[in-house]
Design a protein that fits this description.
This protein is of the alpha/beta class. It has nine helices and nine strands. The longest helix is centred in the N-terminal third of the chain and has 21 residues.
Length: 297
């Protein structure tokens, strides 16, 4: 039997039993054929891609509701994108390091949701410098990006644990995201509101540099938020920043306006990233009313 799905042959397989119903038959057959060929095309676009943001409280502060006047950039970044074409999910959790985001099962939850075409924005570093083992948080990582490790009896969990370098944990998440078909984009940490001689204090040879190093090794885009935001803060001056972008009582967590600044810098840098498809979903000049709820009255 001839194996073909051409319109002529397909119609020839069905012939009306009576000439009087030929016209009706032909119309019905045409409709069936249109449905047959057009349905696959209609479903080809599939669900919208999702951007998953992970990190610490500078990405999502508390419940992400602005309690205490503090916001993370992950809650404002969505306004710089066309949400009719892409979805955002902020899974960052305050107090976590790259290590505890994994050991507490938070990464496994996100990784299990990733599908081909999704994006992963990740920013850690603020909490990785804490103690490796104590009775308070036990969240620190070994400095650097190497393969060093130390075995501990975790004083909080009561379990044995192998603690590795900051870079090791980043590399693990990047590779597992890529294995699931997702596209990781790394982000260097938000700078702290610390000043010396009229400039924001930089910390070379630390988490910013190590994030950039892993991104280069793994061949994934990296947005150097630490550098971009520090430069913007320098131009505003300490008095212009403190109380507006950071509360005077807190040199780490941003206000709504500070989170907006960080998000805008991330969006702007995304637009210029080479070989990063995320930029095609950007929304130029988001309406001002989108940000009113984040700003002080």
């Amino acid at each position: 039997m001839k194996n073909s799905l051409s319109g002529t042959y397909w119609l020839s397989c069905f012939r009306p039993v009576s000439p009087c119903c030929g016209k009706l038959f032909r119309r019905g057959a045409v409709l069936i054929m249109l449905v047959f060929f057009l349905l696959p095309a209609a479903g080809a676009s599939g669900p919208k891609p999702v951007v998953y943001t992970i990190g610490d409280s500078t990405v999502k502060n508390g419940r992400g509701d602005g309690a205490g006047g503090q916001w993370g950039w992950g809650d404002l970044l969505v306004h710089f994108f066309d949400t009719s074409r892409i979805t955002f999910r902020n899974h960052a959790l305050g107090g976590t390091s790259s290590r505890t985001f994994i050991t507490r099962g938070l990464w496994a939850e996100v990784a299990g949701r990733l599908k081909p075409g999704d994006y992963l924005l990740m920013q850690f570093g603020h909490n990785d410098g804490g103690p490796v083992n104590d009775t308070l948080r036990a969240r620190g990582t070994l400095r650097g990006t190497g393969g060093d490790s130390v075995e501990i009896h975790n004083l909080i969990t009561g379990k044995e644990e192998v603690v590795r370098s900051y870079g090791w944990y980043l590399r693990k998440m990047v590779r597992e995201a890529k294995a699931r078909g997702a596209r990781p984009v790394m982000v260097t940490p938000v700078p702290r509101n610390d000043w010396k001689e009229g400039r924001v204090v930089r910390t070379p040879g630390s988490y910013r540099d190590w994030t950039l190093e892993i991104a280069q090794q793994e061949k994934v885009p990296c947005i150097d938020l630490n550098h971009l935001m520090a430069a913007a803060m320098d131009s505003l001056g300490e008095q212009g920043v403190t109380g507006r972008y950071f509360e005077a009582r807190d040199h780490t967590h941003t206000t709504g306006e500070g989170a907006r600044l960080a998000a805008s810098l991330i969006a702007r840098r995304t637009a210029s990233l080479k070989k990063c498809r995320l930029k095609k979903y950007l929304q130029p000049d988001p309406p001002e009313e989108l940000f009113r709820r984040y700003l002080k009255p």
